[in-house]
Fold each of these.
Amino acid sequence: MNQFQQLSWQGLWKNNPAIVQLLGLCPLLAVTMTVINGLGLGLATTLVLIGSNCTVSMVRNLVPNEIRIPIFVMVIAGFVTVVQLLMNAYTFRLYEALGIFIPLIVTNCAIIGRAEAYASKNPVGHAAFDGLMMGLGFTIVLVILGGMRELLGYGTLLSGANLLFGEWANALKITVYETDSPFLIAILPPGAFLGMGLLIALKNALDKRVESWVVKPDTDKVVQRARVTAES
């Protein structure tokens, strides 16, 4: 497995920032009431991750070790400001829906963690790809959790797609069932915790299943060798 394949595997599954490292849980649990909210925050976080990783990688040999963390935070804050202004200009209604959680990307431990653990020690290309994969892994969890909560709470999927993609995206809304009142436990914070727990449990179950498939053939070989040795 080459370096880029390893980064993809780590970011999307093995070391996913949301369901493995459990970083950035505050915005993840707060805004994932719909798929579009989760997708919007995920894309914003991914852009900040890529930009900050690239910048940190480029200046890694120029920043004194003693002040590297404040410098990294300033770099991240700069990219968050850029993303915030772009959303304010082009997706204002989504920006309003996400509220304080856009500027709070600055405090997302997943971003500062990747800047410190990987970008500050690797070339720009690898750092950018690491930011992309970590951001995609985070975004996928946001979208799945938002889809679960929106479907259970409102009976719809992709509601409010026009907030991100424009008025033409109104046609993307899928109504699975009609409801007079939303299922509150799904759209309130307790639903987010329950959904997150289910996703973590599902990942752990899949990991154990895959591990059993990988280990079992090796165990069979050991047993066969022991039988051959005993018979001889």
Amino acid sequence: MDFERVHNRFTTLAAVCCLGLLLWAEPLRAEESIDQSEPIPSSVDEVTGPLEQLGEVKFRRLPRVLPWIKGQLKDAPAFFRDTTMDLSVRSYYSRASKYDGTTISEAWALGGALNYRSGWLLDRVSVGASLYTSQPLYAPAGSGGSGVLQPDQSGITVLGQLYGRIKLTDQVVANLYRYADYKTPYLSKDDGKIIPYSFEGYFVKGTLGETGGAPQLVFGGGYFTKIKDKTSENFIWMSEKAGATVKRGVSVLGGLYTAGRFSLGAVDYYSNDIINIGYTEGSFTKDLDNGLGIRLAAQFTDQRSVGSELLTGTGFSTNQFGVKSDLSYAGAILTLAYTLNSRGYDLQKPWSGYPGFTSAMINNYKGAGYNAWYAKVSYDFSESGLEGVAAYALVTHGWGQVDQVTKAPLPGENELNADIQWRPKLAYLTGLRLRVRYGLAHQYEGAKQYSRDGRVMVTYDFPLM
């Protein structure tokens, strides 16, 4: 099948879905979201898929550190009166080893972000900026690669966000220039360390519909030119981040439809001469008897080269199918998932996001031909009196991977992960989060090798004004 037909198929599908759903939708409303850094869920009602993590980070409004400044602005125009300034302080320690046992990446860094956002001018225009920094506390020479410092272990300070926002309607907003708070399956801020990814471009996002189970549509589309890696101070072209040497941007179009506890969404990413990625996902949640809840989900990705095929220099195509189920009871959730990759080519992760249901802490299981199953158990200890404490453990088993060129078999891998989080409920500590993670990957075929990854993260988010 040639590219034009494939691209037309995904573009037409997304457009028809969006147009059709618009006809069903009710009046406009605001849309809330869940970021990947949100707490470990305690029931299936709190579980979200890659397409359901749309929106922006919402700071929980704690008592302000500088309340007198806010008081001085109470009679000013909304552009000044509604100004917010938030501080996010983060400390992150990571030590990881590769399969060869000799390659170690290790660093301990302190940093965070100072975030500014104005109120609305004439209820239509606002501006904002974010200054990020990550500085070494302990950074052994030759041990770069932790994802919190530059490759040479030096610190980072960068104006990662500098943007304008235009309110086209009450619930349709355009983001202009350098902005970070995007969370889509294959293009995401990936805010799990100290500095997130930032993107340069133009994007329109809106919501149609009502809450309370009525049909609702979250939709968006735009064009991204550049991306800033979390360990860099510079923005580079989206195509360069993907691995090409030419300068190309990425067009994005998609939507997520929900009705009651059912959701269905699709998104398409197209970079001229580089790659086309189509992704779709659906889920259904239901309460069972005796406090049980169940959530079922399925996903499909299609990736292929386009145009002059400048990413790899040759044509390629691949796809992935995945299914997932979550069963919850009294604060505990059991998750089972399975993904199957075609043997055509390794799945690409060009712009930070990767939505595979079996993706774990160390391995993404996105190689050509990979089969993987995944089992995870999480528990919210608030149900047992330990308020704010939650944890999970998971195991992933992968097999069938082949070399994307020769199709020769490659070793399979298993992975074990453990994660514990504490979010105290005390008034002035509400924005504090402590997270400890450990991953162990085992190459169980061929040379029997192990890879280890340990991380400790402390985050404290609070408003200044």
Amino acid sequence: MNIRIIDIARMAGVSTGTVDRVLHNRGRVSEDKRAKVEKVLKEINYEPNMVARFLASKKSYKFAVLAPTYSSGDYWELVCEGINRATDELKKFNISTEYFLFNQYDRFSFVNAINAFKEKDFDGVLIATLFGDYVIKLSKELDAKELPYIYIDSGISGQKDLSYFGGDSFGTGHIAAKLLLGEIGAEADIIIAHIRFKYKEISVQMKTRERGFMEYMDSHNFTGKIHHIEINPDDFTKSLGELENIIRNSKNIVGGIVLNSRIYELVALLDKLDTDLQAKIKLIGHDAIERNISGLKNGKISFILSQRPELQGYDALKAMGNYFLFKQLPQKVNYMPIDILIKENVDYYNNYKL
């Protein structure tokens, strides 16, 4: 029988997380729950023997990770911290990872990372899906080689990925629109700010979030005007003037949203306006990174939507490991919780540690 962790959890009457902690001897488990799990393991003669046979075989696995470069406090730092934590836990099973990093605003950098990855042999790969067309092309090559891969950050439908771990980007767009309409009403102007550097790239996640956002607006009688503004943090003169004109000419409160983790860039730009204009805009952003949390706490951002980036990376690598070690097939789609953060609850959210 191909008995999975979820089956053991059901037989023992505990959570899958409890079973995982018992099997890998990590974290806290009450004596009562540990006894229940160990009783089931003994009855089915499952995990202990399988682990022993694996360790005796000396077999090893190496996984590649295609992910963006990051600076301290960035969204992708949190994702990679989760991957690193899972790697540390799987080391005893002779599992290792190697990163191939790329500039998330430069598709040519992504191609270079792919080429470097292809020069080596791996058993599986985790892929950050920022550049959709290139990811699909790579996926087809991996399909031909029968090399399993897992998507993180944003899913791409119609592919043969082993699994996806990340947020429901379309659903997040819906939630963002609902929250913003509650703040500004259906007749107000809305600014969708695209923050870019050298290359004008829009990720799969951003496109999907915007589709969800617009679909909600269209289906909820939104009659205001939506302004798309491109902000260059290195030269904000043009975008600052556009922002000022929109806010000054609006009779109502204006809504503002950034579709990736960089709402802090819009906050910094708005700080250059008169305080009376700053008071006329309500902002919603994504991802609980430090710079966004600062804007939330000082009242410049109304809401932050977060999708547990550390947990994404952690769960994705653990799923790949379990697939090879225990022949455990993960669910095709694994959505992270969509957490709605405000200044009154963000400290409790920050207390959570993976």
